[in-house]
Design goal:
Blueprint: E1 5-9, E2 20-24, H1 29-38, E3 43-46, H2 50-59, E4 64-67, E5 77-78, H3 81-84, E6 93-97, H4 101-107, E7 113-117, H5 122-132, E8 136-141, H6 149-163, H7 170-177, H8 180-191, H9 200-204, E9 212-219, E10 222-229
Parallel strand pairs: 1-8, 2-7, 2-8, 3-6, 4-5, 4-6
Antiparallel strand pairs: 3-10, 7-9, 9-10
Helix pairs in contact: 5-6, 6-7
The protein binds ligand L3UKIRZJ and magnesium ion.
Length: about 230
């Protein structure tokens, strides 16, 4: 059994850069990112603003510009795992800008090890942390200034999975299914709001779907997220 000290902080509570950070956004940024890698995307540039996203897209016309919220001129894709599947992803670079997930990752950009995570990559993230021998980890609970239940539940699940592979995901998924944002997304999908698909919540709330973790690092002036195979469990 591996003992790891876990801290759970919202973005406004980050006063210093942790050595090891796991930034959680279940609904939906880092579920979307994981589905993008599963669909063959090569890398995801985490942008600091919509303007930066569009500037990068102008310099690299083949890149896919993705933002959350309403559609806007110049953007190609929504922050929706179901809708992303309609794009041609193999080998592509995505530039992603969202309200919570990408902001949280950029807030701890100088961490020695920076992982971005959600339920679909939770087990793989835990195995990578275990392999790294992390004794202390800061989970950045990006939603609702650290109070988003879906993000907190996922962070706690990953923390438990570092200590033991024998953890039942169901109680954690249940908390996420009952969260305020899961209910809002389901309602937005029923209303037909652009950028929200009725399958999104389901695609985000599946534990351990993918065998890779997602590591963010500076590459020149950019913060780049890549999938990294996790050791077997
Ligand atoms: O697209 C999402 O689900 C949210 C949108 S919102 O601005 O919080 O309503 O963004 P995310 O950064 O993925 O939490
Ligand atoms: Mg979120």
């Amino acid at each position: 059994m591996c003992r790891m000290r876990s801290h759970f902080l919202g973005i406004p509570e980050l006063t210093r850069t942790p050595a090891v950070a796991v930034v959680i956004d279940v609904l939906r940024a880092f579920s979307v990112a994981a589905w993008a890698f599963a669909g063959g995307a090569e890398k995801i540039v985490l942008a600091s603003s919509e303007n930066e996203t569009l500037e990068l897209k102008a310099r690299h016309p083949g890149w896919l510009a993705l933002k959350d919220g309403a559609p806007a001129p110049g953007f190609d894709a929504f922050n929706s795992p179901a809708m992303l599947a309609t794009h041609d992803l193999p080998g592509r670079t995505i530039v992603q800008k969202t309200t919570s997930g990408t902001v949280g990752a950029l807030a701890v950009a100088d961490a020695r090890l920076l992982l971005c995570a959600s339920f679909v990559v939770a087990g793989a993230t835990a195995r990578l942390l275990r392999e790294h021998g992390a004794e202390e980890v800061t989970f950045v609970v990006t939603g609702e200034e650290g109070r988003a239940e879906e993000d907190r539940a996922c962070a706690e699940y990953i923390g438990r999975r570092v200590e033991s592979a024998e953890v039942d995901a169901e109680p954690y998924l249940h908390r996420a299914r009952d969260s305020r944002w899961a209910a809002e997304l389901a309602q937005d999908a029923r209303r037909g709001l652009p950028g929200v698909h009725q399958d999104d919540v389901r695609l985000c709330l599946e534990a351990d779907r993918f065998p890779f973790a997602m590591v963010a690092r500076r590459e020149g002036a950019l913060m780049v997220l890549r999938s990294v195979p996790a050791p077997p469990g």
